[in-house]
Amino acid sequence: MNAGELGGGVLFHLGPLAITDTVVTTWGVMLCLAGVALLLRYRLAPLPTRRQTIAEGIVVVIERAIGEVVPADAVRHVLPFIATLWLFVLTANLAGLIPGLHAPTRDLSATAALAALVFASTHWYGIRSKGLRAYLRHYAEPSPLLLPFHIISELTRTLALAIRLFGNIMSLEMAALLVLLIAGFLVPVPLLMLHVIEAVVQAYIFGILALIYIAGAIEPIATDESPAAPPTPTLAKSKNKEES
Amino acid sequence: MQFDWTTFVLEVLNFLVLLWILKRFLYQPVLDVLDARQARVKAEMAQAEKLQNEAAALGQQYQERLAHWTQEREQLRQQLQQDLAQQRASGMEKIRQSLTDEEAKARVRNAATTASHEAELIRQAADEAYENVAAMLRRLASPTLTAGIVRLLVEDLAALPDEQQQALRTAAKKIATEAVDIASAHPLDDAAQQEIARGLAAAAGRRLALAIRPDPALIAGVRIAVGECLLHANLLDELAFFRRRDEQS
Questions:
Q1: Of A127, A196, B124, B206, which one's alpha carbon is 20 to 30 angstroms from that of A166?
Q2: Which residues contact A117 (CB under 8 A, 6 or more apart)?
Q3: What subcellular compartments does it reside in (chain B) (predicted)?
Q4: Kind of pairing, strands B229-234 and B210-214?
């Protein structure tokens, strides 16, 4: 185990840029997802085939999951970002199962990039939904004294988002590597099954947390102005997941 | 745990590119297909609802028409019954009239048939009477009666009307020298023949040759044929004369 196994090892340089295996694997994941998307795009038909039905089912499930958290008129705006997060993180997590490859999400640089994108998109959707003044005002509510805590909360949750995904995937791969080194060739197979489950769970958690952050940013102003009103059960449930 | 800014920036760019690709080639087309399908389903549902409403309206209209037709049918049935009763009464009246006419015709026909039968019976009775008379006259016939009839013939020839006498003379002229055919029921003696020759010569205006032959069917008397003129002086022709006269009457 060396530092290269925890971060991304540099494979080659592209001018001044050092291209790591994380970036190359990400390109591979992108190629796979883009290829599937293009394949489906040009085979869409009014009467769906089995593949189209599966694709439509995935999109509909994601749309409904988003619709349970954000207002209905914002679902179609949020869907591309959240769906891409889910699909990318899931595929990237599962890429670690391929012998010789490492999951891009075991690299803190990649998870930090995703967390930074979630951070930026949260503010983007919030400002777009409420307007800049109204959006910034909610940091000073219910009291301006809470402004530093809001800011710290924004930063720490983003950092937690990046570290959580990085820590889980990195620890999984490391545990599998250790078991392989100590026990033998076929012993890590159950651990690989756990890897699949963990990949799905972590992708879901990452996406749902991003969705909750965005939903909190684009909450209607009326809800913001009546803090005594209880949150919706779905939102409360999602927030409980975040705390866990 | 290393942090590489190059990887960070490239990952951000990669994600944004992937986001654009998936949005452009996956989410939007699939959502468009889903929206189109949903719109089509909504349109078909609306169309189905519209058709259902139309069907309900048509059903209501059908029920109303059915009720109207039932009412109209009852009215027509009553009208038909009235018409039938009227036509039945009219027909019965016509039949009654026809029966009356037929009865009158039958009565007339029966009267005619009865009259015909009566006439037939009368004719049969007359025929029988004539035959009985002829039979009785045959028994009474004799040369004496024939001679008496010849005398009466000669008397009648002498008293012939001018018109008949002229016709006899014309017929006599036409036969020229031919003999006059005389059929006699009994043989004629010379006196009777001469008496006939004198009577004919007087009536015809000249003497005529006579050809006498027997004919018992005449019962009594003679029948003289002068050319186209026939002189009936016998009981058979007399009876036939009377029979024709009765039949004509």
A1: A127
A2: B12, B15, B16
A3: Cell membrane; Endomembrane system
A4: unpaired
The secondary element (H helix, E strand) that includes residue A13 is strand A10-14
Cβ distance of A59 and B14 shorter than 8 Å: no
Report d(CA A60, CA B30) in Å as an integer: 9
The torsion region of residue A15 among left (phi > 0), alpha (psi -120 to 50) and beta comes to: left
Residue of B7, B36, B37 lying closest to A22 (CB–CB): B7
B27/A80 Cβ within 8 A: yes
The distance of B11 to chain A (nearest Cα, Å) reads 6
CA distances A217 to A80, A125, A137, A164, A221, Å, are 17, 7, 12, 22, 10
In chain A, what are the domain boundaries?
A: 3-243
* CA-based nearest residue to A151, from A139, A163, A164: A139
Task: Please check whether residue A112 touches B, CB under 8 A.
Answer: yes
Cβ of residue B99 closer than 8 Å to a chain A Cβ: no
Q: How far apart are CA B38 and CA B140, in angstroms?
A: 138
Rounded to the nearest integer, the mean pLDDT of chain A is: 83
Whether the complex's predicted ipTM is more than 0.90 is answered with no
Tokens of A120: 């930026």
Q: Domain-by-domain residue ranges, chain B?
A: 78-140, 142-248
Handedness of CA B211, B212, B215, B220 (dihedral sign): positive
Q: Which of helix, strand or coil describes residue A19? A: strand
Q: Is A87 part of the contact surface with chain B (CB cutoff 8 Å)? A: yes
The SS3 of residue A10 is strand
Cβ separation A41–B37 shorter than 8 A: no
Q: Please state the rounded mean pLDDT for residues A37-52.
A: 88
A153: distance to nearest CA of chain B, Å?
22
Sequence letter at residue B168: L
Report the distance separating Cα A219 and Cα A140, nearest Å: 16
Give long-range contacts, CB 8 A cutoff, 24+ apart: B167-174. Answer: B167/B229, B168/B203, B168/B204, B168/B226, B168/B229, B169/B203, B169/B204, B169/B205, B171/B204, B171/B226, B171/B227, B171/B228, B171/B229, B172/B204, B172/B205, B172/B206, B172/B208, B172/B226, B172/B227, B174/B227, B174/B228
Task: Give tens-digit pLDDT for B66-114.
Answer: 999 999 999 999 999 999 999 999 999 999 999 999 999 999 999 999 9
Parallel/antiparallel/unpaired status of strands A17-20 and A10-14: antiparallel
- Band of pLDDT at residue B131, cut at 50, 70 and 90: confident
Half-sphere exposure of B146 (CA within 13 A, CB side): 27
Residue linked to tokens 């059960």? A233
Distances A101 to A173, B58, B123 between C-alpha atoms, Å: 11, 70, 150
Structure tokens at A155: 């930063």
Contacts of B10 in chain A (CB under 8 A): 17, 19, 23, 26
